[in-house]
Amino acid sequence: MKTRKAVNHVVFVLLCILIVLFLTPIFFIILNSFKGKLFISDNPFALPTAETFAGLSNYINGVEKTNFFAAFGWSLFITVFSVIAIILLTSMTAYYITRVKSKFTSLIYYMFAFSMIVPFQMVMFTMSKLANTLHLNNPWGMVILYVGFGSGLSVFMFSGFVKSIPIEIEEAAMIDGCTPLQTYFGVVMPILKPTAITVAILNAMWIWNDYLLPYLVIGVSTNYKTIPVVVQYLVGSYGAKDMGAMMALLVLAIIPIVIFYLACQKYIIEGVVAGAVKG
């Protein structure tokens, strides 16, 4: 008993240290967003003083320079529709390849699993060229691309959870006259809720913060720029940076995804464990 308590205390201390390490960068971003840009580089770890405090000027300056709210709208559009499409399409795919046992479905499953280990850098140039050829360099095209890149992990997680669902439940629904689609949306999908929320959180955090894919496909010369792309606008020629405005925009960018995460975070462990262990 004493040994277990000692271990619990050690684990608690380690977790507290990890919390501090993870939150420290965010704290300094928020801190520096209220300091004048000339003072950030000189002493980034100092608290704002009467001389260095800039109030909301960094936020106003950053929003005006980058047209932040337009970028916020496009980021929100791409993230929401991509996540919805990923959840709907990958859950149906996982349901099909799990319930229909054949060499074809096994091949599909392993292809999705293989896609998780292929690094994005290996395909980014051919992908951007193909996206440009197919005129996917727009928000709807980005949704299609994100569905492709997000399908591997999502199908893997959904497949693991579907295996844990007793098939007798679906057979009972079919006996009652439900079609396969009615069985899926009325019986299976509600059971998949924990995994669906986990998939939504993981993909939303990735898509919202992604810089490379929108930069390669949409670029910086269109009206569809996302938040990570417009933040890069604050880096001028010869490495000149408006650090105050950049810190302010980073704070504005992380607020929505943090709120979304906190609202749904209780489902993450449940969904990940269910998708990876059950079945």
Describe this structure in words.
This protein has one domain (56-277): Orthogonal Bundle (MetI-like fold), CATH 1.10.3720. It has helices spanning 2-32, 37-40, 57-66, 68-99, 103-115, 120-133, 139-162, 167-175, 180-191, 193-209, 212-217, 227-232, 243-264, 268-277. It is mainly α. The protein contains 14 helices and no strands. Helix 7 (139-162) packs antiparallel against helix 10 (193-209) and helix 10 (193-209) packs antiparallel against helix 13.
Summarize the structure.
The protein has helices at about 1-30, 35-40, 55-65, 70-100, 105-115, 120-135, 140-160, 165-175, 180-190, 195-210, 210-215, 225-230, 245-265, 270-275. It is an all-alpha fold and about 280 residues long.
Short descriptors:
single chain, 279 residues, mainly alpha, 14 helices, 75% helix
The CATH topology is given as MetI-like fold
- Provide the number of structural domains: 1
Number of helices: 14
The CATH fourth-level homologous superfamily? MetI-like
Oligomer: single chain
Write the layout of secondary structure elements.
Blueprint: H1 2-32, H2 37-40, H3 57-66, H4 68-99, H5 103-115, H6 120-133, H7 139-162, H8 167-175, H9 180-191, H10 193-209, H11 212-217, H12 227-232, H13 243-264, H14 268-277
